[in-house]
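Trying the structure run again after the queue cleared.
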Amino acid sequence: MVAQLFLSVVIVSVFATTDANTDIKVVCEQDSIRITWRINAELVPHAARFFLGSCLPSKFNVLPSGDGEAEFNYKLVNCKFKRLVKGKHLLYQNELTFRPNKRSKPAAFVYPIECAYKSPEGWVPTFLNPGSSFSEGRGRLVFHMELLNEELTSVAKTNVIPLGSFMPIWAAVEQKSHQPLLLFIEECVAATTPELQLDSQVYPIIGNKGCLLESVKANSVFLPRYHSSALVLFLQSFKFPLGNEVYIHCKLVAWDPDVLDETKKACHYVKEKLRWELLDDPSQSSICSCCDSTCTPRLKRAVKWESNGFSHNSVLGPLIVTEPSDSNVRDISEVQ
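Done. Tokens:
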């Protein structure tokens, strides 16, 4: 206890006198990042508590002066970088942190990292056109919802999901000649049938106008967007209380990208920060504060709905969540 208190005092005094801009050097390369972080001598024994996102330093040197130098050389697909699309640019964001305590406690020091790149003309992942699996919603827009493989590079070839693994559920709307649209998943429930009835038993996954409820209970998240018209729900599989064979029912909403409010949002709970965070602009995360209560539309926004938005109900399944010992396998062709 005394040792922890002493360490905390040292940390506060060291970082209070540190000019982070001179001690941290960042170089953004084409698909990777190089960071050099000069560490005060008092913190060198705690080199294993410095992180870039989820990654430890790739190299740590003790300098002749007694100070340390942590080097982070990683691809942007590693270390849990967040990828955002803003205008014509791709942004990769992360944080340098010093965590003297367990990961569940706030970091003692946080320094934001960002690399910005110009998006290639017409760039979208290869699975944006998934063939015949589509449905037409209001306004004659074409909506998609698919289960992706683990690499997020194509549609999955199996509907069998090991318990505890992640199910990347991709949803998108084809904009075609329509004005730019922002896609949201307003609501998602799990059920045992491909059609919902008034008396159907359901398990909520997303509710309250775009709040990812499973991010509170498990490690599910919305992945950073690669395009405004698509969204990937990274859903951690669990033992559904409704049965092994599950259908995911979601309400997809295409909306004006310039209008975000309590009813048009994508929010997930960030356990490290103990708060809800808005996927598309964390600086506006106050929009997500209603996720713990009830998110109700403002009258003016509701009136504008007819001209600004389109919605569609999509179903994905059956999906089979199995224990590691199970060998029950079905082909993806059975997934509608």
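The CA atoms of residues 222 and 233 lie 5 Å apart. Worth checking whether this holds up in the mutant runs.
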